[in-house]
């Protein structure tokens, strides 16, 4: 699950729908953009096909593709 905005996070625990998606196995990718997630997934699947390792690699920021928090200058 990604976001379509420049600022904001995929908040999966706020609504029932988000929790339902988590139960189905959807992986929240914080504030990663969809295009970035697609390219990263392509790279990750070139490294491994083990499910747990794919999840770990997708959630780990390697090149600033996610941020720990929003900048205070976001408008």
How many strand elements?
A: 0
Radius of gyration using CA atoms only: 13 Å
Shape by Cα distribution: globular
Largest sheet: none
Low-confidence stretches: none
Round the mean pLDDT to the nearest integer and report it: 85
Percent helix:
40-55%
Element order: H for helix, E for strand = HHH
Helical segment count: 3
Report, as a whole number of angstroms, the end-to-end distance.
23 Å
Q: Hey, roughly how much beta strand do the residues contain?
A: under 5%
- Structural class designation: mainly alpha
Give a brief rundown of this model.
This protein is mostly helical. The chain has helices at residues 16-24, 34-47, 51-59.
Can you put this structure into words, describing what you see?
- It is built from three helices and no strands.
- It is globular, with a radius of gyration of 13 Å.
- With 75 residues, it is mostly helical.
Describe this protein with a few key phrases.
single chain, 75 residues, globular
What is the strand and helix layout of this fold?
Blueprint: H1 16-24, H2 34-47, H3 51-59
């Amino acid at each position: 699950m990604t976001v379509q905005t420049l600022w904001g996070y995929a908040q999966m625990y706020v609504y029932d729908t988000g929790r339902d998606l988590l139960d189905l196995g959807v992986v929240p990718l914080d504030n990663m953009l969809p295009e970035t997630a697609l390219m990263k997934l392509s790279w990750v699947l070139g490294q491994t096909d083990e499910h747990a390792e794919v999840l770990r690699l997708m959630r780990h920021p390697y090149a600033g593709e996610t941020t720990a928090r929003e900048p205070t200058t976001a408008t």
